[in-house]
Predict the 3D structure of the following.
Amino acid sequence: MKKILLYLFLFILICFILPALLTKRRNIQESKETTILEETKLENDLTNQNNLEENTNSNNSQNNDIQEYKYKNYGTIRLLHEKTGEIEEIPIDEYLYGVVSAEMPATFEKEALKAQAIVARTYTIYKIKNKKHENADICDSSNCCQAWISKENRFERWEENLREANWKKIQEAVDETKGKIITYENEPINAFFHSNSGGTTEIPVNVWGGSGYPYLQIVETAGESEYSQYSSEVELSNEELLKKLKEKYNDINIDFENSEDIKIIELTESGRVKTVKFGNQNLSGVEVRTIFGLKSTNFTILNKNGSIKFSVKGYGHGVGMSQTGADNMAKQGNSAEEIIKHFYKDIEIKDINSL
């Protein structure tokens, strides 16, 4: 009988009590593991949230550094719209968005665009301090001051899928250089710039006369031949050429059969044309460029028995920063400040509020 009771007890222990105890233990273990997993997940979530907040704060701090820059002077300019005669008051860096987008292709490297922003800001401040317009600081004509275009008009000329990205790139170039200008002896320089130097820049005296500026010297520029602005041609019949010259020099006479009647007499130090002989008249290279619509004064002349061909290198007056030269330098890894210091000599780049 005792053996029967013992076997019955063991049967109950194995079938009911022991599984219950094991199940309880497993539930406790699983509960602990679940708690650990939940705590780990919570820690990770908190870490991620903290990282997100830090990144957000860092980005906000960077944005605030840009947004919080305050010009002591020159924060707002009076812009003359040449076509309408209207004068618009506009924050200087908002104005520069329009200048940079009008003067330099958005496809150029970011550091080239930043260099253009600093140059354009400097040129603007120089114009304010050396007024040319009676009731305005500067105008929107590239023939007089520097080009400018509204955002709306700029967008119309860009492909739709490029508009926002292009504008953002230009805004960043201006905003990341806020307040920076180029100075010589602690004064803003007359920051001339042009499209393509043809390999060598020019000094102002050979373009506009006067005494020139010490910071605008002849410098070599590499890589410009890769750009479409580097070379161009203008060909005119003998009759067309003579007609254009007679509009200014009515008494001009040219013997097209005489090779000595059309020839370049003198070059400038940079290799551009200084003086050209056309029959009984000697003209400056700058004047020839204007009369025949040449892209620069760096040209050669070929008499082709019935027509005259001008082969031209470069685009623009050649003084100051070459924009294509700046882009090529940026492609080689140069910064905006390095680009500027290549084209303008013995200058400093300063915060305008420090002057």
About this structure: The two ends are 113 Å apart (CA to CA). The CA atoms of residues 246 and 252 lie 6 Å apart. Confidence is low (pLDDT under 50) at residues 18-66.
